[in-house]
Backbone:
């Protein structure tokens, strides 16, 4: 009997001791979970993440139309996302834009590309003094598919990574608010890639072309890349014009220190105006103006009153896209 009572007492003491240890372990585990949740919430709350997905289309159908014209149908898509971090004196802005569009006109059975863009930008800043940040910027852009000088669609004039552009810059960034940013860099490397032998051989997009003498012997090899070093400026501004109307613009300027004629400025200026009808339907008007002294285009094509018509050389490039369709904004603060 005494042995039985002793055994029961030992079992009871073990259960009490085990229960206390189990409670301590559970309490410690809960404390660790609370710490992890607090750390996760603290890290997430400093990010603003969002973007827009847009798909639009347009159709024109003509039957016995006296004024003339062509049937056409076009489809375009856009994905624009951002992730912005701000904590203490540090900021980190990231933007990704993907766009692609095609059009088919008249009796043409082929779809022709009318929009094609891949661009990623990242910028890190550390506050220097009020509203000014020491900043480093990286930018990369190229396209998805081959491009042609329509209606000639037998020989491509561009393709993925031909060209591809990359920018690496160190400078100062002025950010008085969330609507405006002015980045100025006296130390900028601009890199052009033409990852195609036939395009690079002809010196497309400013890379070194192949040269031969009168006997056909190569006296200068072609290059598939080009490096430039100069000054760079990037200005961004966005605002709500009125209810359901938003406007955003970006201006980029670059001049090459290594050019003999220093002062030639490369320009890339884009605008985007969004007219929202409701939560899922909106219209957008996008424009892009480009000037690069190293890129030759067929100048003043269709302007028969100009002496430059039909010649190749640097000139202003301009694109406008007006679209109506489905769009969805997403994000969290």
Residues:
């Amino acid at each position: 009997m005494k042995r039985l009572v002793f055994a029961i007492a030992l079992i009871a003491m073990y259960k009490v001791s085990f229960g206390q240890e189990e409670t301590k372990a559970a309490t410690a585990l809960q404390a660790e979970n609370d710490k992890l949740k607090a750390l996760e919430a603290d890290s997430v709350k400093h990010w603003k993440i969002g973007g827009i997905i847009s798909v639009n289309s347009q159709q024109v159908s003509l039957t016995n139309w006296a004024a003339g014209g062509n049937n056409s149908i076009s489809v375009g898509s856009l994905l624009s996302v951002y992730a912005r971090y701000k904590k203490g004196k540090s900021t980190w802005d990231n933007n990704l834009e993907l766009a692609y569009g095609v059009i088919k006109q008249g009796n043409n059975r082929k779809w022709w590309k009318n929009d094609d863009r891949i661009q990623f930008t990242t910028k890190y800043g550390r506050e220097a003094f009020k509203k000014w940040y020491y900043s480093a910027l990286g930018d990369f852009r190229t396209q998805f598919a081959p491009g042609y000088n329509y209606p000639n669609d037998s020989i491509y004039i561009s393709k993925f990574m031909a060209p591809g552009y990359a920018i690496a810059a160190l400078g100062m960034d002025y950010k008085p608010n969330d609507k405006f940013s002015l980045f100025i860099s006296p130390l900028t490397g601009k890199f052009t890639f033409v990852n195609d032998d036939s395009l690079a051989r002809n010196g497309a997009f400013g890379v070194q072309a192949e040269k031969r003498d009168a006997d056909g012997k190569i006296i200068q090899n072609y290059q598939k890349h080009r490096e430039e070093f100069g000054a760079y400026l990037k200005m961004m501004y966005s605002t709500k014009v009125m209810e359901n109307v938003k406007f955003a613009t970006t201006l980029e300027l670059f001049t090459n220190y290594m050019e003999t004629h220093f002062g030639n400025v490369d320009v890339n200026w884009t605008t985007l105006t969004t007219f929202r009808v409701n939560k899922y339907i909106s219209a957008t008007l996008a424009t892009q103006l480009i000037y690069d002294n190293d890129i030759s285009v067929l100048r003043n094509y269709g302007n028969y009153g100009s002496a430059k018509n039909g010649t190749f050389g640097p000139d202003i490039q301009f694109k406008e896209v007006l679209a109506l369709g489905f769009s969805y904004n997403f994000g969290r603060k």
Summary: The longest helix spans residues 2-44. The CA atoms of residues 213 and 253 lie 37 Å apart. The longest strand covers residues 112-129.
